[in-house]
Amino acid sequence: MNTARQMIETWQHVFKLDPDRTIGERELEAVCQSGTNAILVGGSSGLTYDNTAELLERISRYKITCALEVSDLAAVVPGFDLYLIPMVLNTPDPAWIVGQHRAAIERYADFIPWESLIAEGYIVLNEHSTVARVTHAETSLTPEAAAACGHIADKLMSLPVVYLEYSGRFGDLETMAAVREAVGHARLFYGGGIAGAEDAARAAGLADTIIVGNIVYQDLDRALSTVGAVKARSV
Ligand code: 1GP
């Protein structure tokens, strides 16, 4: 097992911060010192080299693991602890499965820090999310179809992470349970619509790692309450 893999094995809770959104210094400090396991920098639109580098520089003032979820080659900034590489499993468009990846590797192979990369098998299920629109994801999957995607990532592709992505709304519990059942080796990430401690506890019951995004920008106290809710489950 490599170091990157070992790092994510300890993650129960992660805050996802979007370089294209504004966060004040006090809020950033609270998020970084909340007890979360890592900050994941990422977003589906508006990422640039400059806004990504600026957010990394601000987060680097705190003692917290900081990972970049790569969605736009133009916004790949050196200096992150880890780089998470999404591969969307429920899209008919190969560009979002391996196409962009191949282009990037052809261009930058000699500079890629392979030991810091973690591939994520994404299952994108909220049709109204930007990520679904951008990647043309087939979002109307039955629980069985979503579980099949989980099996593909977990067993056929041996990906280290399966990411159940409902970005913007809380997921369907039956689907979450079906994917949980399918994923045995990979770490199961869940993200989408976690708006407080109760949602966090529910999601943590069906995933290894929960990702909290939007609510950071809407209600910081509720966002911070999600950390305790997840950690409380493991004591
Ligand atoms: C988004 O999964 C994350 O990629 C988190 O979702 O923003 O809805 O919390 P929310």
UniProtKB/TrEMBL annotation:
Pathway: Membrane lipid metabolism; glycerophospholipid metabolism. InterPro entries: GGGP/HepGP_synthase_I, GGGP/HepGP_synthase_sf, GGGP_HepGP_synthase. It catalyses: sn-glycerol 1-phosphate + all-trans-heptaprenyl diphosphate = 3-heptaprenyl-sn-glycero-1-phosphate + diphosphate. Mg(2+) binds at residues 18, 44. One of its GO terms (biological process) is glycerophospholipid biosynthetic process. Its EC number is 2.5.1.n9. HAMAP family: GGGP_HepGP_synthase. This is Heptaprenylglyceryl phosphate synthase.
